[in-house]
Fold Thioredoxin reductase.
Amino acid sequence: MSERYDIAIIGSGPAGLSAALNARIRKKNFIIFGNKELTSKLAKAHEINNYLGFYKKSGKELQEEFNKHLEEMDINITEERINNVYAMGDYFALMVNEKMYEATSVILATGVEYGKLFDGEERLLGKGVGYCATCDAPLYRGKVVTIVSYNKHEEEEANFIASIASKVNYIPMYKEKVEVDPSIEIINDTPVGIIGEDKVSKLKLKNSEIETDGIFILRDSISPGQLVPGLKIVDNHIEVDRLMRTSIKGCFAAGDIVGKPYQYIKSAGEGNIATLSAVSYVDSVSKK
């Protein structure tokens, strides 16, 4: 049986880090998933003047302060991407490719950088459209696979698929140099829609169309409704109350993912509240 954490935090922006900090202070057994590198939003922030106590700081400088605090509190970020979260009654199952984590409560703090869905993407999800190439790779043995990638890190997934599929098309949505297996065809074009009746047949691009049996869309994060089935979403944000509780018992959310204003200090405050609520929930479950 795998270890069951009290709290699993998904996201390592200000909301997720604040949640982790307070989970440590409250002496809970927790895990935080995210990226140790600067988030793209913070990286772009030239000067921040509305974060109390940190005047005229750039996003990079603010992140450095966050990192010092995490180091001081002995908090480590687990660099794995959660593909799905399932409510199992008295705990949550968090899926990472072929691996699973368990937690009594979950805090969602993934921000809003999951991008707009392509036409046909939602309708054909599970019918040739997927978000985890390594999970579904065996289904595409000897078939044509197309990967739409938003991050250079995903090149390894493309190489893995290339060892199984008959052909792999790779569409990079990032600016860095693409370094994939020579057998992979790199297509520098912009996807606009996915075509198919009961299953995927083609990917429509701005300047062309390609026939394909499967499409993997590897974004940095996926939309909250796809991440956690059954979650109530309003205007593309997770609906929460003032205690950061979502529509699913034991699941909390904080930061940009719950709505405007998209401000770092607001996100950090919500991360704090989400953890306090999660702690109360975990304590109430343990008393049963």
About this structure: The mean pLDDT is 91.
